[in-house]
């Protein structure tokens, strides 16, 4: 593979070959990864189109400052490389299959008399992993089947030959109830054990036919030797295997090793169902939701989801059934849209799952909307407010031992944090640790700004503190002439008491009430935001004080550095030339020498 870098205006000179392209912004941040059969045509389409391109795509194109390409041999290689890069880097404008689940695997250990057990962590040197399984239930069903068919040990003993020969172990209950043949005491040879294990591995791969043939042959051999009891045991195991296969059978057993992937979508979201089928049995079924990022069509979304799900579930399918006729088939990806027969029925089953998942998501979203609406309506009722408090602002002060006094304001819209509306405040007019005066200052600054900009007031103001802080906030609103235009309360942390203006006694909301929990969440968020800012300011001030102790660096130089680089971390990671541009070469030399001496500090 060959990688090259281009400027956006140089897109005309890109090669007419398959590959992957990466877009970077002015901060050299990777914002998008794409694949193309022809890099020149595909990348050019972003810059040549003036109509029919949505706002998000136009916004992304404006951000592009550098293009990096990687040439590959085929479009399929480009698709696989794109998938790996997106999974690894998760660019902002790419569709992501976000999944916080860690899926279970079954591990066949690499040791004498290997074991099979479930795990969620993959450490390759421990053995061979089978999976992932879409659910714990599906995994346990397979594991239970294997343990009923074969006598695979469950203990964690070290069964090295010399330890068995030394007679270090005794048989356990599993041996006495017939679940183990006692390899720990030499009752079972490893060659016979490994033979059973190989058949267990075939079942884990979904190849039930191999195990069925084995049990049939064993049953017939025992019957011919007149060992009818052993033949009956093989018959029971064969029946068990066929019963398991019948449960998971979705189509004809002659249909082997294929994937099914279907998609339904609306304006903003796509819903995908993915199934793996072996010998007519469904061995995996998974639903995913994709949020549309740019102007992706259904075919692009389906292929994106398919490749990532095949990668996730380690598919080796020879054929892939889909429900969307591909306009641009990818050579090497065996896609087909069946029109009749059993394969068509598989598409219908998969679509049924995708549509049900879409309906389920819509219902869940509706329930969440109802809950959100219910909570803020309950808060309106509990606080006797005239309007629904769909816009709440909460204030908190933070100073530790009177140093670096700061404050915060957090904003919740419709019961959810609106992080872009959060504000930090440096306390400017108050000397020393005075929470009441600090509260008055920040409330004055916040609402004088809203008045000046003509922005709407919140439907509820929450002050973190008791009567004193509430009185200070009220005083600020009175001086601004807006007291009474928006309801205001104080919440005292110790007993979760709610204070109203002018009331001598606090109000207590039921501790289990959803409305109190919302108020607590808002108050805790304001406290967290204030504390985080306070730590940052204190660290910055401490570093600034240290800087002024370096010969040749005074307060002005320290302020220049902090103003230009924004943070202590950025100053420490800046290059010599970057520092020289801001403070000159002699001061840079002094600073670098000091940083070198205080590396571990």
From TrEMBL:
Top-level taxon of the source organism: Bacteria
Chief site of localization: cytoplasm
GO BP of this protein: nucleotide-excision repair; SOS response
Pfam families given in the database record: GIY-YIG (PF01541), HHH_5 (PF14520), UvrC_RNaseH (PF22920), UvrC_RNaseH_dom (PF08459)
Record's keyword terms, sorted: Cytoplasm, DNA damage, DNA excision, DNA repair, Excision nuclease, SOS response
Keyword set includes Cytoplasm: yes
GO molecular function, one term: DNA binding
Protein's cellular compartments: Cytoplasm
One GO location term (cellular component): cytoplasm
Domain GIY-YIG: 16-95
PROSITE patterns: GIY_YIG, UVRC
InterPro entries: GIY-YIG_endonuc, GIY-YIG_endonuc_sf, GIY-YIG_UvrC_Cho, RuvA_2-like, UVR_dom_sf, UvrABC_protein_C, UvrC, UvrC_RNase_H_dom
Domain UvrC family homology region profile: 264-477
Cited Gene3D superfamilies: 5' to 3' exonuclease, C-terminal subdomain, GIY-YIG endonuclease, UvrC, RNAse H endonuclease domain
Keyword DNA damage found: yes
Quaternary organization: Interacts with UvrB in an incision complex.
PANTHER family according to UniProt: UVRABC SYSTEM PROTEIN C (PTHR30562:SF1), UVRC/OXIDOREDUCTASE (PTHR30562)
Family: Belongs to the UvrC family.
Protein's job: The UvrABC repair system catalyzes the recognition and processing of DNA lesions. UvrC both incises the 5' and 3' sides of the lesion. The N-terminal half is responsible for the 3' incision and the C-terminal half is responsible for the 5' incision.
Name listed for the protein in its UniProt record: UvrABC system protein C
Organism of this sequence: Algoriphagus lacus
């Amino acid at each position: 593979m060959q990688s090259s870098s281009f400027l956006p205006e140089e897109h005309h000179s890109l090669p007419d070959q398959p590959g992957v392209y990466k877009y970077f912004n002015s901060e050299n941040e990777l914002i998008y990864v794409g694949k193309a059969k022809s890099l020149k045509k595909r990348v050019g389409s972003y810059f040549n189109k003036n109509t029919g391109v949505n706002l998000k795509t136009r916004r992304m194109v404006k951000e592009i400052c550098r293009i990096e390409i990687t040439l590959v041999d085929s479009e399929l290689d480009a698709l696989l490389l794109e998938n790996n890069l997106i999974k690894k880097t998760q660019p902002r404008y790419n569709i992501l299959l976000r999944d916080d689940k860690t899926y279970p695997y079954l591990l066949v250990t690499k040791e004498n008399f290997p074991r099979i057990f479930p795990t969620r962590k993959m450490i390759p040197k421990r053995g061979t992993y089978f999976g992932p399984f879409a659910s714990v239930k599906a995994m346990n069903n397979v594991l239970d089947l294997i343990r009923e068919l074969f006598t695979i040990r469950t203990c964690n003993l070290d069964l090295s030959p010399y330890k068995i020969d030394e007679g270090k172990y005794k048989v356990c209950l599993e041996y006495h109830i017939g679940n183990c043949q006692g390899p720990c005491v030499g009752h079972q040879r490893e060659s016979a054990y490994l033979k059973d294990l190989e058949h267990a591995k075939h079942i884990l791969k979904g190849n039930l036919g191999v195990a069925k043939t084995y049990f049939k042959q064993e049953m017939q051999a025992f019957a011919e030797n007149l060992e009818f009891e052993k033949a009956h045991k093989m018959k029971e195991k064969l029946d068990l295997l066929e019963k398991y296969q019948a449960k998971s059978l979705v189509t004809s057993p002659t249909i082997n090793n294929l994937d099914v992937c279907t998609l339904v979508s609306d304006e903003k979201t796509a819903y995908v169902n993915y199934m793996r089928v072996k010998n007519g049995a469904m061995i995996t079924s998974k639903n995913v939701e994709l949020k549309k990022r740019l102007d992706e069509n259904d075919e692009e979304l389906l292929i994106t989801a398919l490749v990532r799900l095949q990668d996730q579930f380690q598919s080796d399918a020879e054929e892939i059934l889909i429900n969307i006729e591909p306009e641009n088939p990818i050579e090497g990806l065996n896609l087909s849209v069946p029109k009749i027969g059993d394969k068509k029925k598989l598409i219908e089953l998969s679509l049924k799952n995708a549509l049900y998942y879409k309906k389920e998501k819509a219902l869940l979203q509706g329930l969440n909307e109802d809950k959100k609406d219910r909570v803020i309506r309950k808060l309106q009722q509990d606080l006797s407010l005239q309007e629904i408090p769909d816009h709440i602002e909460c204030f908190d002060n933070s100073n530790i031992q009177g140093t670096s006094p700061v404050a915060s304001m957090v904003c919740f819209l419709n019961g959810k944090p609106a992080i872009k509306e959060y504000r930090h405040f440096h306390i400017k007019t108050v000397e020393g640790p005075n929470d009441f005066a600090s509260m008055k200052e920040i409330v004055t600054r916040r609402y004088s700004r809203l008045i000046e900009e003509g922005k709407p007031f919140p439907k509820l103001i929450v002050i973190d503190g008791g009567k004193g802080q509430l009185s200070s906030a009220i005083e600020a609103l009175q001086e601004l002439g807006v007291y009474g235009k928006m309801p205001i309360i104080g919440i005292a942390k110790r007993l979760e008491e709610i204070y109203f203006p002018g009331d001598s006694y606090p109000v207590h909301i039921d501790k289990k009430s959803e409305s109190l929990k919302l108020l607590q969440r808002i108050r805790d968020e304001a406290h967290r935001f204030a504390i985080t800012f306070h730590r940052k300011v204190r660290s910055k001030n401490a570093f600034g004080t240290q800087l002024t102790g370096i010969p040749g660096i005074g307060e002005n130089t320290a302020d220049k550095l902090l103003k230009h680089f924004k943070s202590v971390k950025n100053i420490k990671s800046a290059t010599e030339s970057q520092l020289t541009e801001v403070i000159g070469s002699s001061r840079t030399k002094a600073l670098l020498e000091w940083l070198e001496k205080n590396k571990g500090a």
